[in-house]
Amino acid sequence: MRRRLSDWQRYWVTFETILTKEIMRFSRIWVQTILPSVITTTLYFVIFGRLIGERIGTMDGFAYLDFIVPGLVLMGVITNSYANVVSSFYSSKFSRYIEELLISPAPNWVILAGYVSGGAARGLVVGTAVMLVALLFTEIQIHSALVTLLICIMTAVLFSLGGFINAIYANSFDDISIVPTFVLTPLTYLGGVFYSIALLPDFWQKVSLANPLLYMVNAFRYGLLGVSDIPIGVAFGMIMLFIVVLTAFSLQLLRRGVGVKT
Amino acid sequence: MFALDVQQLAKVYKGGFQALKGVDLQVDEGDFFALLGPNGAGKSTFIGIVSSLVRKTSGRVQVFGQDLDEDPEGVKSSIGLVPQEFNFNLFLPVLEVVLNQAGYYGIPRREAKVRAERSLRQLDLWDRRGTEMRKLSGGLKRRLMIARALVHEPRLLILDEPTAGVDIEIRRSMWSFLRELNAKGTTIILTTHYLEEAESLCRNIAIISEGAIAERTSVAKLLGQLRTETFVLNLKGSVSELPELGGFVLQHLDDCTLEVEMKRDHTINGLFEALSRNGIEVISLRNKQNRLERLFLELVDQRAANLEGRA
C-alpha cells in the first residue's frame, strides 16, 4: 500500500529533486562550470601572488600571496553561485521546462530554496577547489573555521539569490551576462580582493564602504587570516540583511509570476 | 461532482487584449471532453489558467471541488498537463525527465522509479529510457509528454493538441491509449485541430470563439445538427457530364471520382438507384471526414456574425 506523506515530507522530496538536478547539471559539464575558475585563480596566484606579489612585500602584515587567497576563493564562490542559478533558471524559462515546476504543487519557497541551494553548492565546490589550488602555493592557517564556513555559505546563498532575480527578469541570453560583467566583476575587484582599503585615500575608503562585496571579502579574510578592514559583526549583519531582502523580493516575484507566467 | 467547474473566467493580457470574456464551463467527472476553437480563440489561455501557467484576471476555477485560489496545491495535484509545445530539458535522458517530474509532485525516488517505469512502458518508451530528449523524434516526444503527465496519476488529464505533427500510426496508438485511460476513470479534456480526433474520441464538446463559449453540447447532438451528409464515390468508368439528380448535389473530383452531398432525409439506396438509372456504376464509397469541421465553421461564423450584428 502506498504510504501517504505529510506536506513537509513532500516538500523535502521536491527540494531534494531540484537540488540533485542542479548538482547533476553542473557536474555533467564540469569543464564549463568548475575548471575555468580553477584555471583563472591559478593564474592569479602565479602572476599576482608569486611574480608580482614578491615585489609588493606584505599587506596587513601578511605576504601578498596569503593576503589575496581569501578574496580569490570568495570571488570563485560569488561568480559561480551567481552563474549557476542565472543560467540554469533562465535556460528553464527559455526552453519552457520551468513549466514542469510551475504546474506542480511545489510551493514557491521550495522552488527558490532548491535553485539557491544548487547555486550555493556550485559556489562551495569551486571555493573548495580554489582553496586546494591555493595550498599548492602557500600554507594557510585557518583563523576561525566557523567564520570561514559561515561567510562562505552565506555569500554563496546571497549571490545565488542575485542570480535568481537576474534570471527572472532576463529576456535573452545577453541579459544574463550584463550584471556579472558590468556590476559583479567591478564590485568584486573593488571589494578589497587585491588590496586593503586602508591603502586608499579617505574619500575612496568611504566610497568603498558602500560596496557590499567589501564586507564579504573582509569577513572571509578574517575567517582565514584573522584580519579585516570591517568589524566582523557588521559584515555578518550586512550579509544577513541582504539575504533577507533578496529572499523576500524573490518570493514576491514568484508569487506574482513575474517573468514566468503571463 | 464536476471534474472542472469554471465560472466567469476572464483574462485580459497586458496591453488590453481580452483573451477570455467570462467563460462558464463544466466538465463531468469521467468525461472525455473536447475544447475546440480557431487559433486565438482562447483555448490555450483557458488551459493555461486551469493548469496555473497563466494568471486569471477574474472568475473562479474548481477542480474536483477544490478551488484554485484557496487550495492551489490540491488543484495542481489533481491535474496532468500535456502542453502544445515541447517543454523539456533536451539534454536530459527520458527516464530522468519523468523521475524529476515525479519528484516535483513530492513522490519519493523509490516509488517514482516504479511509476516512471509503468508510465514509460504504457507509452512504449521504456526501451528509450536512456536516450537524451534531443535525440527523440517528434512523435516520441509527444508520447513522452503524456508519460510525464501521468506519473503522478492525475484524475484530470488536459491535452493541448497532443497529436499535432505526429504520423497517423502514432496518432491512432495514442487515441487507443487515451480511450483506455478514460475507461479506467481519468477525466480527459482535449483541444485539437483534428476535428476527426474530437469526433472519434470525445463524448462532449465545447466550442470556444472570441474568448467565449459558442456551443457546449454532446458530440452526438452536435453531429445531429448536420442537415447534409457528403460521400466520395469511386466510379467504374469515367463520367464526363454530370446528371441532374433530385435531392443530390454532384460534383466532379476527377473523371472517375464524384462527391455527392445529400440531404439527411434521403437514403443511400435512393442515391444508388438514381445513379444506376443514369448508367453510373459505383465501385466504392466513403464518408467525407469533414462533418464536425463543417459544423465547427458554421458555429464560429455564426458567432462572428452575431457579434458583428450587435456592434
TrEMBL record, chain B:
SMART domains: AAA. Signal peptide: none annotated. InterPro entries: AAA+_ATPase, ABC_transporter-like_ATP-bd, ABC_transporter_ATP-binding, P-loop_NTPase. Keywords: ATP-binding, Nucleotide-binding, Transport. Residues 4-235 form the ABC transporter domain. One of its GO terms (molecular function) is ATP hydrolysis activity. Pfam families: ABC_tran. This is ABC transporter ATP-binding protein. It comes from Thiorhodococcus mannitoliphagus. The lineage of its organism: Bacteria, Pseudomonadati, Pseudomonadota, Gammaproteobacteria, Chromatiales.
